[in-house]
Structure formats: C-alpha cells, structure tokens
Design a protein that fits this description.
The chain is of the alpha/beta class and 291 residues long. The protein is 48% helix and 11% strand. This is Alpha/beta hydrolase.
Length: 291
C-alpha cells in the first residue's frame, strides 16, 4: 500500500510538473510560433552570408553560453548558435524555461549552466544574453566573474527591469497573477518588489566587475525594449539598426558579436586554415587603440 501511495504521489507530481511546463509554454505560445518561424527563415539566410560562407576566425573551442529571454527556445537562438559553432565555438544554451520563471531561480540555473560549461571546457566562457536573458547574464557575470571571459547583452533592459512595451508589460502582469496564485514555473509579483528576487535586482543595479569586458548592443528601432535601458554605465555600447528579434539573428548583430569575440580572443583568435590572419580581429582592432 505504501508503494502504491508513493507511486500515486509520483504520478501526481509528474502531472503537476507536466502541467507547469504546459502553462509556461502556453504563456508564450503565440509569439513563439511567429518568432520560431522567423528564426528558421533567418537561419537559411545566414547560410548565404559571408560570415557563414567565409568564416573570419577560428575560435578554437571557445566556450559560449547563450541565454535567451522571454519566450526563448533553442530554435530561436539557433541562427546565432549555429554560426558560433561554425566559427569553432563550443556553444551551450542556458536552461531559462521560456524565460517566464522566477528571475532569481532562473539566474541560479544560468549560473549552474555556466559552471558546468567552464568545468567541461577548462576555460572561462563568453556569456551572450538576449532581452531578459541579458539580465540573468549580467547577474551571473557579477557573481562568477572568474568564469566569464566576456559578457555581451543584446537588447536587454539593464538599468530598468521593466522597460518594455506596454503590451509585453501587460503580458508580464498576467503571468505574475498566475504565479501569485501558485502556478509553478511562472514569475510572481515578488520577483519585482519582494525578497525572492532582491539579489537579482541588486546585481542588475550594483557594481560590475571591472575585469570582465562588457558590451551592450542595442537598437533604437527596438519596439519591445526601451533602448535607453540598455545603456548600462558599466558597459561599452554599440548601436545597430534592427528589430528586437533581429538582435539575435540579423547579420548586423551577428557581425558585432563576431567582432567582439575576436577582440576578446586577442592573440588566440586564429584565421581558418589557409589564411594568414584574422580579418575581423584586425579590422576591429584598427578602431580600438586599446588593442
């Protein structure tokens, strides 16, 4: 009987977990369908771009952790992830659960993923965060600076946590209401004002480790996140012209990311076999006296 009761409890827990996952998925279902279709289309376009056809550097196994935002899936990050793999990076996608869970819990999961990647690669990693994922990425870089070779955020609301379009803000409040009544896997009002996410809020507004290079990429054409909130005073800033989603798949954004990787790699940035030097690194350094 005890075994039967335990089995029933496990079954109930399994159903609850499945229900939680379903609710999280439904919370972002409509934008996911549209954005994943865009990502698939852009993935095909990137394969025809010079960054793909003529890789400008060989990253030699550089570990990179990609951190998605709200509604994020591996498919959404695939255009950038696949390009980075083609450049020789060792890419992992952080488990953000569609980016709709408690902020501090998600930041903790990202930190664990970073530690595992760094241990496996035996080298500090580049952390790249898009949208809300940039908030998690900044917090983790603040907490684990020895594991971060560089931080790149893309269209992330860093100086104001809720600097987003009113429609998205309404969506967040709806999710928070569901989380407040006990729906697992969803953020709650306490994530904004309560104690649960106080550490995350402190790491977003507090000092950033000066030894970690930090680049914030933004677009004034972004209609989802207020671009001014991306101007973190601890970061260098780079503006491009694209949409919010384009920050993870537009060739203009991908080019900026590759340029930054070349700078972060420094002498470790090698040209692909048969080439004499890293074109991106040389081009980028010509504009940076610090190089």
């Amino acid at each position: 009987m005890a075994q039967s009761g335990a089995a029933g409890q496990n079954t109930g827990n399994g159903r609850a977990a499945a229900g939680s996952g379903l609710l999280s998925r439904l919370a972002s279902a409509l934008p996911l369908a549209r954005h994943e279709a865009q990502a698939y289309t852009q993935r095909r376009a990137i394969e025809r771009h010079s960054l793909w056809l003529d890789p400008p550097l060989d990253a030699r196994g550089l570990p990179v952790l990609l951190v998605g935002g709200m509604g994020s899936t591996p498919a959404l990050l695939a255009p950038m992830g696949d390009l980075l793999k083609r450049l020789g990076c060792r890419v992992e996608v952080a488990p953000v659960r569609f980016g709709v869970d408690c902020g501090e819990a998600t930041a903790h999961a990202v930190g664990n993923a970073l530690s595992e990647l760094v241990e496996t690669a035996s080298a500090p990693a580049i952390v790249i965060g898009h949208s809300r994922g940039g908030q998690f990425a900044r917090a983790v870089a603040t907490r684990q600076p020895e594991q971060v070779r560089g931080l790149i955020t893309l269209g992330s609301p860093l100086t104001r946590m809720l600097a987003v379009h009113p429609l998205l803000l309404a969506h967040l409040f709806a999710l928070g209401a569901l989380g407040a009544v006990g729906t697992p896997g969803l953020l709650r009002p306490s994530c904004r004002w309560g104690a649960c996410c106080a550490p995350l809020r402190a790491d977003l507004t507090g000092p950033f480790p000066g030894a970690v290079p930090f680049l914030s990429v933004y677009s004034a054409a972004d209609r989802v996140v207020d671009w001014r909130s991306s101007l973190d005073p601890a970061a260098r800033h780079r503006e491009i012209v694209t949409s919010h989603g384009g920050l993870i798949w537009d060739p203009a954004s991908l080019t900026v990311v590759v340029e930054e990787l070349a700078v972060l790699l420094g002498p470790d940035a090698e040209a692909p076999a048969g080439r004499g030097s890293c074109r991106v690194a040389r081009s980028r350094c010509s504009r940076r006296s610090a190089c």
